[in-house]
Specification:
Layout: H1 7-18, E1 31-37, E2 42-51, E3 54-63, H2 66-79, H3 84-100, H4 120-138, E4 144-145
Parallel strand pairs: 1-4
Antiparallel strand pairs: 1-2, 2-3
Helix pairs in contact: 1-2, 2-4, 3-4
The structure holds zinc ion.
The site of zinc ion (ZN) has 8 residues, from helix 2.
Amino acid sequence: MFEDLNDLYQQVILDHCKKPRNFHELPAATCSAQGRNPLCGDQLQLFLALDGNTIKDISFVGSGCCISKASASLLTEFAKGKTKADVEKMFERVHEMVTTGNVQGDVGKLAVFAGVHKFPARVKCAILSWHAVMAALKGDAKPVSTENEQT
Ligand code: ZN
């Protein structure tokens, strides 16, 4: 399924899939959001502890395919200690990258998802946690479903 992704990227995704980082509930969370991708069966819940505009802590729980779990894991690694604006900017970059393959600016480790645009069915898996984090930051209480999004 990942024959077009290079080995290094594949290894990072598999590593985060098998050992997701920040994979637990967060009792100190100030907001959270759920995301569902019915096409694949991915579901996850993100927890954020905000201090003003800064994400002091972030975690997630859920189940799904390797891409969705690795994406959420890498998202939490990226977002910890960042501001809302940092996450919004990165959402735009990741969205562009997974839908078109164009990488704009420095996306760090998230570049492992650049090859996902070649697998249209997987784009929603990769972007799910990003829609969820945006919903959490906006304070949207209703679960995010990729069925209602244009990815
Ligand atoms: Zn999936």
